[in-house]
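Run log // design_07
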């Protein structure tokens, strides 16, 4: 096997293949069980050489090059997956009552805090899919699926499980707790900002737009202004429970 092929790996996201040729020989380790060595080279993703050196200054001093490559491959992977009507989304995702729920917000806004509150209050009722960046997949004629990825955040929270998307919660920090349905405009703007793909063509823009329109049409999206306390999490749980009860009765 040539040196180039020795660094070639295939990963499967939501059932769809992505082939990488890593520039750093040990990068595959950060992908865990997702990356399997292969000899395929068609449509492989090869990170531009200047990216690793150019982005190094954005990481803490001493960060390994393999970790930088692993992180910088996120938008390339997300863009590649668009052809399959799926992509990577920035959110903590977990299963509750048989459906997947996404806690989304910019970094540092309390996504992990809210999830850990759920763990504290309801440890036997939930299971995490991804602590940072799940894959959302939209197979034709089927429900929107939330699937795992190797990008699980600093806490490395993740499991090899998938579930139908139940809803999305947009988090805001506040001094009191309140929750409401997001209007269409703020839903669309938030989803565009939290998908990790950077469309490079009109076709990719169309695909991503169609995906977002489908999410807005099919699942509830709430804006949750919250204190980050366990009391706030109880408010969110009750909101989800009430929504599921209405869904059953319709």
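design_07 sequence
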């Amino acid at each position: 096997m040539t040196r180039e092929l020795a660094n070639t790996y295939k990963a499967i996201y939501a059932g769809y293949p992505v082939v990488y040729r890593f520039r750093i020989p040990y990068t595959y380790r950060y992908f865990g069980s997702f990356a399997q060595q292969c000899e395929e080279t068609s449509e492989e993703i090869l990170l531009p050489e200047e990216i690793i050196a150019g982005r190094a200054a954005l990481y803490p001093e001493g960060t390994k090059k393999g970790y930088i490559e692993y992180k910088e491959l996120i938008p390339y992977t997300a863009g590649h997956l668009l052809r399959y009507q799926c992509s990577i989304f920035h959110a903590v995702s977990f299963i509750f009552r048989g459906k997947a729920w996404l806690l989304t917000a910019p970094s540092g806004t309390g996504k992990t805090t809210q999830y850990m509150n759920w763990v504290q209050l309801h440890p036997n009722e939930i299971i995490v899919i991804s602590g940072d960046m799940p894959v959302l997949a939209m197979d034709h004629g089927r429900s929107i699926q939330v699937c795992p990825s190797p990008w699980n955040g600093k806490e490395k929270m993740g499991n090899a499980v998938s579930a139908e998307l139940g809803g999305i919660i947009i988090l805001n920090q506040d001094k009191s707790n309140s929750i409401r349905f997001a209007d269409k405009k703020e839903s669309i703007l938030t989803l565009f900002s939290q998908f990790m793909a950077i469309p490079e063509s009109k076709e990719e823009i169309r695909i991503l737009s169609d995906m977002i329109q489908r999410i807005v049409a099919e699942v509830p999206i709430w804006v949750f202004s919250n204190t980050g306390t366990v009391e706030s999490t109880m408010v969110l749980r009750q909101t989800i429970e009430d929504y599921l009860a209405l869904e059953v009765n319709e």
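The two ends are 59 Å apart (CA to CA).
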